[in-house]
Amino acid sequence: MKIFRIPDITTDGSYTLGAVVTALLLTRGWPLPAIIVATMAAGAMAGILTGLVHTRLKIDALLAGILVMTGLYSVNLSALGRSNVPLLDVTSVFTALSIFEEQVLNELWVGLLFLSVLASLLAFLLRTDFGLAMRATGNSESMTRALGINNDHMKIIGLAIANALTALSGFLVAQYQRFTDINMGIGIVLVGLGSVLIGDALIGWLGIRSIWLQLVFVMVGCILFQMVLAVTLSLGIDPALLKLITALFVLTIVGIPRLLGRHAP
Fold this sequence. Notes:
This protein has helices spanning 10-27, 32-56, 61-80, 93-96, 103-127, 129-139, 141-146, 151-177, 188-206, 211-234, 242-263; strands spanning 84-86, 179-181. The chain has 265 residues and is mostly helical.
């Protein structure tokens, strides 16, 4: 969303795909490193498919994501075999990397570990010549085309990376909640967009230019977004309305700055 200006709806499907691959391989006794590789490869393939539909068939990126996400629902359901698979009797990444006696501290530690490693790799990538070319593609396709950069390849690779990371999120969440559900990815794109938009607002207000700090503030935006949802539930609001509240909250984040800008002198 930030780099290519594409709200990739494939996220809803690749998030669940990551959880499905995790459930299938964990229950078959695969080692965790191999599961991580397989999960990210599956997510990357979903992103590549969306990129090919968008660039080769010239279909709008939003519609391409919707088409792939819709197809992934059937793929995920067929692969899982049923709507829900428990993961109670398997060794999760949280138990394999546990260093504390309290489970909640182990979950926090593993989450911070994955965040640190992925943020470091992503910051490094975006600072390379390839990363600069990718960022430039999102800013001005005509300029990058004139410089000899293949915009289609950049979009495909970018979507592959994004959905690989999304699938890895499904890998972690499935083990955190100890089950994989076929509907766990519905609406997850709103959570991602809300987090990015909050982080982007903070970045704009503070005038941050460092890639490292931009990534940190996107993570801060994610935490703030989840805190809003947690406060909403603590107020006693029906959990069935949580998706509606999420949508309204994202709409508020997007709409208020535009309204303030429109009415500014």
